[in-house]
Amino acid sequence: MSPQALSAVRNTQLEAEARALYSSSLPYHNFDHIQDTLESAEKVVERCREEHIRIDAEVVYFALLFHDAGYQDDHLARGFATKERYSAALAEPILRRHGVSQAQLDKTVAAILATERDAVCVSAEQKAVRAADLSGLAADYPRFLHSSMCLKREHELLFQRTLSWAEWQTSSAEVLGHYLTQEIRLTSYFHDGRGESLFHKAVRSNLARLLAEPSEPTVSH
Fold first, then answer.
1. Residues 91, 195: one domain?
2. Do 100 and 51 share a domain, yes or no?
3. Mapping DSSP to helix (H, G, I), strand (E, B) and coil, where does residue 119 land?
4. Alpha-helical regions (H) of 2-77
5. What is residue 2's predicted lDDT score, i.e. its pLDDT?
6. Is residue 147 one of the residues assigned to a domain?
7. Which residues of the chain have pLDDT under 70?
8. pTM of the model
9. Are residue 200 and residue 95 in the same domain, yes or no?
């Protein structure tokens, strides 16, 4: 069975309910980010079809729609070890109301948790969600830079501390370096067995350009 297109499973009412869980006050982890990941996922699912990889587009859609839900909240104060576990908890009752089966819920929760920093992805759906979430790292440099600046502002907002440009470059090198040690073993764009896929090359190029910036760039918000 060929994978269904992600666009075929989208639900306007469900997206409206998900949107309410995101805050526009966050520069990066807002609903615009969700829309970006859904666009990326459409391409990931299409590549799966081309490379004859079976995948449940509905699970990918549900997981991405909610994977950063409640990001603005203090997840620890609510009893959750990670933001991703909190997001999954927010997603479950809404998806149940929409008639999603327990089996699909379980797969969706697992796919949301696949976006945790040190997650080990097993299923194609988990890999696709992680791939879509990280796709922005390999975007063209202006888009990558804009996202990086939004993340910096968001970090400063959440932690109430201004970061110097050097501190942000160091942090970015550590975070992206971590992701570059991993391979998302899904389609050939993300995995070639040597850590030199097109995705890896694009991220390395973006990181190198970011680290070469002599001072904090000015980008439009």
1. no
2. yes
3. coil
4. 12-19, 31-50, 57-66
5. 44
6. yes
7. 1-3, 221
8. 0.95
9. no
Of the candidates 203, 157, 161, the residue with the CA atom closest to the CA atom of residue 184: 203
* Statement to judge: residues 27 and 113 lie in one domain: yes
Q: In this structure, are residues 46 and 187 in contact, taking their beta carbons and an 8 Å threshold?
A: no
Domain residue limits at 182: 136-212
Scored b (16 or more CB within 10 A) or e, 137-166 reads: bbbeeeebbbbbbbbbbbbeeeeeeebeee
Residues 40 and 108 in one domain: yes
Tokens in use for 9? Answer: 């499973």
Give the residue carrying structure tokens 């975070």.
Answer: 175
pLDDT (tens digit, 9 = 90+) per residue, 146-190?
999 999 999 999 999 999 999 999 999 999 999 999 889 999 999
pLDDT digits (tens, 9 = 90+) for 182-193: 889 999 999 988
Taking each helix axis from N to C end, the angle separating 165-180 and 198-212, rounded to the nearest 10 degrees, works out to 170
